[in-house]
Amino acid sequence: MYPPRSQKKRSGQKNRKSRQRRLWLTMNASLLLMIVVLLSYYFINDRQSAAGMQSPNPAPAGIEKKENPLQEQGSSAETSSSQDHHSTNAADQPVQKPAKQSVNQPVKEPDKQPAKTDVDAKKQGSNQDGKDQSSNDTHDKSPAGDEGNAAEGSSQKDASVPEEQKSIASDNGKAVTINFVGDMIFSSKVEQVLEKKGYSYPFAYLGDTFKKDDLTLGNLETPVTTGGVSAQNKQYVFKSSPKALDALHAAGMDVVNLGNNHILDQGEVGLLDTIKYLDQSGIQYVGAGKNAARAYEPQYFKRGGMTIAVVGCSRVYPEPSWAAGDNKPGVASVYDGKGYHDRVMTTISNARKKADLVIVMTHWGIERSLTPNAVQTKLAHDFVDAGADLVIGGHPHVLQGLEQYKGKWIAYSTGNFIFTKSSTPSTWKTAVFQATCKPKSGCSMKLTPYHAELGQPVPMNAQEGSQLMKELQGLSIGGVKISSDGVVTPGS
């Protein structure tokens, strides 16, 4: 007997539903698997993006934190998602600003232009007295003074500045325009981009901003060398190509601070090579040197009838051996021990006697902290009390607020400028800080906001820039006001 037709129909429907359920389960399982794969890929890629980003450099064993900490307290909070971070007697002569040259490497023309900055004067110095320092600092010279003696070494050569350059310019003298920016590296993922797009790529949106001013300063957070031996006491070390410096100089950079926690990433050889390549490129340097005398030595520049002194130092490095010694390459330390702090203050006060304007560039603070700590504030005030007119800070890799102390501007952290891009959004914001200074009248301050993209600062739009200025005003000290277009005014 054949089964009834209704029974066959029910059996067929049951089989179809069973097949549909199996198909539905298979599709859902496949979708879930794809989601897991995509999430895993995103997580791995995000971790790799932050891989070069500097992790903490905890104070090495055996170093007593109370007296000689090699990072500010609180730096232990840093994690692996943080940034990749991190002469001769003629050096005391004010340096004439060399004629700017265009960057040779081709770069795609940007379709976006930065907000205009106030430039009060074309770069001066084509007919001023003074020379470019071009000595090769890898050649040994007898150092001046002892690293523990603040009065020696930092001021022995000061008498070589001509008397006419020591005189303070009149109050109605010409204003000078000074731009300064944050941390710069040309290694790791930045190097990969530059090798593909050219070493002028970081400056595509800057135009002639650094060429039209009188002086441009930044923090060189990397040794520049083809040799050296990587430091063994750090998780992340940098090494940048000499090709980067020619492009940096062509963009308008005049002087860099080497006083930081990465300049000896490739050992003393790496530092000496960096000095050699800086000399060859025409970029001056402060904050480190072939010995303590050179590391603490100011560099002088003659601009618009004014003599400008630049001093560099660091309160962040991984171990005591990084400090420069009498016959030892290293960093100009500003820690409290061994007379380092006093030596920096003496250097500043001696520079004050010869210069119309004294600028201090320093490395300090806690990475990714939006506010300066007590050590930074105390040290900044010490710099001003010693004679500084302008204090420029770096190392936190984020922008911190400004303060005006005794009429002098302090920029606690200028953030990243040419750097890798981490997974921390606060590190993606930066600015070009511009000071316009007149003799005896102090400096005015203006900020131009940028996004810190991978290896390239990119201008913010008006809304983004206004929001960043509002944030920085909230972070600033003493009632400092910052307008939506970046004009900074002191509190009442």
UniProtKB/TrEMBL annotation:
Domain Capsule synthesis protein CapA: 177-421
Transmembrane feature ranges: 23-44
Residue stretches of biased makeup (Polar residues): 70-82
Protein name, UniProt field: CapA family protein
Assigned protein family: Belongs to the CapA family.
Renumbered residue ranges of the record's region Disordered: 52-170
PANTHER family recorded: PGA BIOSYNTHESIS PROTEIN CAPA, POLYGLUTAMINE SYNTHESIS ACCESSORY PROTEIN RV0574C-RELATED
Stored Pfam families: PGA_cap
Organism: Paenibacillus mangrovi
Membrane is among the record's keywords: yes
Listed Basic and acidic residues bias regions: 108-144
Keyword Calcium among record annotations: no
Keywords tagged on the record: Membrane, Transmembrane, Transmembrane helix
